[in-house]
Specification:
alpha/beta, two-stranded parallel sheet, 265 residues, 35% helix, Rossmann fold, 2 domains, five-stranded parallel beta sheet, single chain
């Protein structure tokens, strides 16, 4: 049965088969997403993904043993810290906070947790952390990526010609519109591109040859730092629903395999 961690009493928690329960921890962020989308975009998506995942998992296993942890509202957002409103932990702070959560879960007998990464900047810390938690506590820390951005159904939501859609662009803005359209101000939207990489054949903001980009690398055509990739103006709530549903559906098989993954004492 899928339940919210924070809603259980101590007695209910004690009665769980904690060794075989998966604790899902959604990792959001509090950072700029352009002129049009809220600072809490990743946090909002993290919360919505809990609902979409529950719906999709219960289609195949209504007894899936999972506790959903409260979404973490702040993460590692160094690349956005100079844009007004963005808040970030230092990497070591973020690492130790998540480490302490893992240590607490281990103390209470949990053996499996899954980090749901809803902000890409959190991933490097989580990748290091997951191995350390397994080494130190025998805690199996799995990593899930929340956005199925390479899926054909998701790619089909991007407007023609919007080739740089990325952080804070059409897809993420659409996802927020599916959650709460009142939070999006499309009339203020501006598009962003990595102008400093224009004309390069190999060196890009991501890929086989890359540099750790900063938000200022993404600019309007006039050269103003805007901190987002792509043009959000084509965003719609329906596109966001497709992206959220597809992203949740694509994680189900992995979650079933996490459920069945053998634990070594």
């Amino acid at each position: 049965m899928i339940r919210n961690y924070w809603e259980l009493t101590r007695l209910e928690m004690e009665s769980l088969d904690r060794e075989n329960t998966v604790v899902l921890i959604p990792l959001g962020a509090l950072e700029q997403h352009g002129n049009q989308a809220p600072l809490g975009t990743d946090f909002l998506i993290a919360g919505a993904m809990l609902e979409y995942l529950k719906k999709e998992i219960e289609k195949v296993d209504r007894d899936y043993p999972m506790l959903m942890f409260p979404p973490m509202p702040i993460g590692l957002s160094t690349e956005h810290k100079d844009f007004c409103g963005s808040i970030t932990f230092k990497p070591e702070t973020y690492y130790h906070m998540l480490y302490d959560i893992g240590a607490g879960l281990s103390r209470h007998g949990f053996r499996k947790l899954a980090f749901l990464v809803c902000h890409g900047g959190n991933a490097p810390v989580v990748q290091i952390l997951s191995r350390e938690l397994r080494s130190d506590f025998g805690l199996y820390a799995f990593i899930l990526s929340s956005g199925a951005f390479d899926h054909p159904d998701v790619k089909a939501t991007i407007s023609p010609g919007n080739v740089w859609d990325f952080h804070g662009g059409e897809m993420e803005t659409s996802m927020v519109m599916a959650i709460d359209p009142s939070l999006v101000k499309l009339d203020t939207a501006e598009a962003g591109e990595p102008l400093d990489f224009e004309g390069n054949k190999s060196l890009m903001p991501y890929g086989k040859v890359s540099i750790s980009w900063m938000g200022e690398d993404w600019k309007t055509k006039e050269g103003k730092p805007i901190g987002i990739g792509g043009d959000p103006k084509g965003a719609t709530a329906e596109k966001g629903r497709i992206i959220l549903e597809t992203s949740a559906r694509e994680l189900v098989q992995g979650l079933l395999e996490i459920r069945d993954f053998p634990i070594r004492d």
